[in-house]
Amino acid sequence: MSIEEGQLLFAQAKERLSQFRALSFFDAANRELNREPSDGLDWLQRWPHISFLIAKWALAGWRRGDDRPEPSPDDLHFVAQSVFDAISHLLRVEGNPVLFIRRMALQQIWMQRSFDTSSIARQFRILGERMAGTEIMVRFEERYGMTAADFAVQLAHMAADVGDMLEHASVSDLRPLTPRNPDHWLRVRAHMSNTVPDLHREMQALVARETAAEVEVCEQSPLVSMPFIVHADLGPVCIHPKLLFRRLESVLFDMARAISPQRFMNDFGPAFEGYLAEVLSDLGGHLMREEEIKPRLTGEGKVVDFMLVFDDALVLIDAKGIEGHYDELYHNLPAELAAKLRTSLLRAVDQAISTVSRLPTELQRPETYFLCVTFKQVVVTDGSALRELTAGTEEWDHARWMSPTLTPARMFFPSAYEFESLVALAAASGTPLSQVMREISTQNADPYTRKMYIEQHVAARNIDLLAPAIVQCAAARLRG
Prior knowledge:
Elements: H1 3-18, H2 22-34, H3 40-44, H4 48-60, H5 73-90, H6 97-112, H7 119-130, H8 135-144, H9 148-166, H10 169-172, H11 182-191, E1 193-194, H12 196-208, H13 213-216, E2 228-231, E3 235-238, H14 241-248, H15 251-259, H16 261-280, E4 288-289, H17 290-293, E5 306-309, E6 313-320, H18 326-330, H19 334-341, H20 345-357, E7 367-374, H21 383-388, E8 411-412, H22 416-429, H23 433-444, H24 454-459, H25 469-479
Parallel strand pairs: 1-2, 6-7, 7-8
Antiparallel strand pairs: 2-3, 4-5, 5-6
């Protein structure tokens, strides 16, 4: 098997699709995605990522007044089968199993994950409350016609609608007590809805990038950012609930960032750091923040945002608004990955190593753990996995990996949701956070118990966890 064979199969699928009316392929993909059961294991076994990919190509190939012939069942089957056959060739990464597993996870896990029911309250708290009045959120209101807090209320109504439809009580319970604001509701729906010509322009622009087949095959569907398609008679129709759930989980973040990425990050960073401090308050005890840590360190250098001190261990925590550049997530070449990671996760590791190297004797402990908390999931399990992604580059031999105290296996990169879950687990079990991270580190050292996501480690404990108090309070205010 070779990548070249996979590329050829991809090209053949695209060529066959281009010979026929494009929307017929979209309709076929949409029917397959929504055929019952439209979720769960049976749905996943129908390879929905293939249908999402065909839907993308079909929208990119749409023509106004398309007079090409209708595809036959054999044509539809040929395109889907060619993509299926190409996958085993295109996903191969010789000599780097970590990179292979990560690309498989990127392709598949976003469809398997349940809706993060804390996500709207989290955005409400950070963007709607903590960032209220900042320059970027003033511009948000000017652009979208409502505050982020008001937008979040309508998002909660939207999520609850899907919860009712799917009979997911935990999602239905998000429904605000305040009725929908008709003007706000129309604006929110319009923002998340696209006509076929709109979707065509978006998908055509993506196809024009000429992304390598071996990269495109493992991407999350770009339709996540456009979950509703406008039907001539029915109005906005959800393409699939999975798309809507993934969009709801970060839509306010994405909208605000789109206004001005640099300006947004300047305001978001302090707000996100403050939010993590609120989450950490569930653990009780003394939390050292940067302004308390910095004067106690020797020499000059970088410092993390938080430190938890235990009798036998330290837990360093840093808040990063990293969301993952396209190439940083999907690329299959370590040199390309290293270049992107150098300004994000690798920089965060250097910050932690600098802190550890300058600790005074009274703060030094036999073990140190580092949590670099990102708002979105960046799909890097731990420092060992991060280092593997740079194999063959100068970053592989960098001194950052040689610390006897903060080893790669004790570095973690949880999303905000995963971080909340870790804190909730520590609080519910009465276990120090350092012990929770020690157990995860030990499990990840064994290939039989290693997991791709921290949330999988937490779920394996089979403990009913409550959202952090700050999330519960924000959700209560959101519901009115």
